[in-house]
Amino acid sequence: MHTTQTALQGHIADFGMDTITLAGPLEAKLKAVRAAGFGQIMLAARDIVGHPQGMDAAVQAVRDSGLRVTGFQVLRDFEGLSGHLHSYKVDIAKQMILMARELGAKVLLACSSTSQHAVGDMDAVARDLRKLAMLALPHGIKVAFEGLSWGRHINEVHQAWEAVERADMPNLGLGIDSYHQFATATSLSLLDDVDPARIWLVQLSDFMWQETRTVQERIDTARHFRVFPGEGVHTQALSSLVRKLDGMGYRGDYSFEVFNDDYQQLPLPVVAERARQSALWLAEGVLRRSVPLPGAMRLRAMSP
Q: How many CB atoms lie within 10 A of CB 116?
C-alpha cells in the first residue's frame, strides 16, 4: 500500500492546489491537500494575514505541513499607475515580497491591472514590471505576470508576454491561467513565441459553460463557478493547452486555481479527492506520465 501511494504521489508531483479552493482554517487546508497526495500548495495572502494566531503562526503551519510552496498570490493593479497611486502599490508590493520570502515561496503572482487609472503604454508597463522584479530580486523571488481576461489593457497571454519581454528582467516571467485563456478564446498558436523557460507558473481550471458573453459574466464565473480540469465543458481545450505547454518544453508547476462556491460548502477531503482525480487524469491521461503499477487502482476516465 505504501509503495502504491508513493507511486501515485509521484504521478501528481507536478500538480498542486490553491488554498482558495478550500474552506476552513489554514491548518485544515494544508492537512487535506497533503492527505490527498499532493506535495505543493499555492498560498493566498488572506490565508496568512487572516490567521487567528497571526502571520508567524501561519508561516510555521506551512513549514510544518511539509508542503512545498508553489507560489504566493496575488499582487493586483501594479503596472501603469503614476504618482501617489504608483507609490502606494510599490509599498504593497514590498510587503507581499517579504511575505513570500517568509513562506519560502519562490514565485509571486502579479495580475494585469484592471484599474481605470492605469495607462496602456507598453513602455510604462514594462518600466513598472522591471521595478517590481528589481524589488523581488534581492529576496530570491520570481515574479509571474498574468494577463487577466478582464484586464484593462492586458487581457491575453501574448500581451502579457510582450510586457515581460520588454521589461527584460531575469526573475520576471509569465503566469498562465487556463480560465483566462478560454474566456478570451485565445489561440494556442499565440504561445509559439513564448520562451517556456520563462513560464514561472501555470494555473488550471475549467468551467461549465462554453463562453462568457459579458465582462461581468466573465468575472463572476472566474470568482465563483470554476471547476477542476476534467469536470467542465472545456476538457479538450484544456488537454490541448497542457499538451502544448509540455511540447514547448515547460516542466514547471501546475496548480489548480478553482474558485467555486459549492466547493466551499463541501468537506475538505471531498474537494481534495476531486483535485487528486483531476491531477491523475492530467498526469496519466493527458501527459502520459504513468508507469505500470501492479495492483494499483486504475484511473477512472473523467467525464467531459
A: 6
User: Do residues 79 and 129 make contact, with C-beta atoms less than 8 angstroms apart?
Assistant: yes
Class of domain 2-286: alpha beta
**Smallest Cα–Cα separation from 78: which of 144, 32, 128, 42?**
128
3-state secondary structure of 133: helix
The contacts found for 92-95 with CB under 8 angstroms, 24 or more apart, are 93/132, 93/135, 94/135
pLDDT above 60 (res 164): yes
- Reported as a pLDDT band with limits 50, 70 and 90, residue 211 is confident
Q: How far is CA 220 from CA 108, 210, 226, 252, 260, in A?
A: 24, 14, 10, 29, 10
Helices (H), the chain: 2-11, 26-35, 45-49, 55-65, 83-103, 122-136, 157-167, 178-183, 215-224, 235-248, 268-280
Name the phi and psi angles at 75, rounded to 5: -90, 120
- Around Cβ 44, how many Cβ atoms within 10 Å? 18
Instruction: From residue 165, give the alpha-carbon distance in Å to each of 80, 93, 153, 158, 201.
Output: 16, 21, 16, 10, 16
pLDDT tens readout for residues 212-256: 888 898 889 889 999 999 999 999 999 999 999 999 999 999 999
pTM: 0.90
Give the span between the Cα atoms of 55 and 89, in whole angstroms.
21
| Rounded-to-integer distance, Cα 284 and Cα 209, Å | 25
Give φ, ψ of 56 to 5 degrees: -60, -40
DSSP character string of 169-232: -TTEEEEEEHHHHHHTT--GGGGTTS-GGGEEEEEE-EESSS---SHHHHHHHHHHBEE-TTSS
Q: Report d(CA 199, CA 229) in Å as an integer.
A: 20
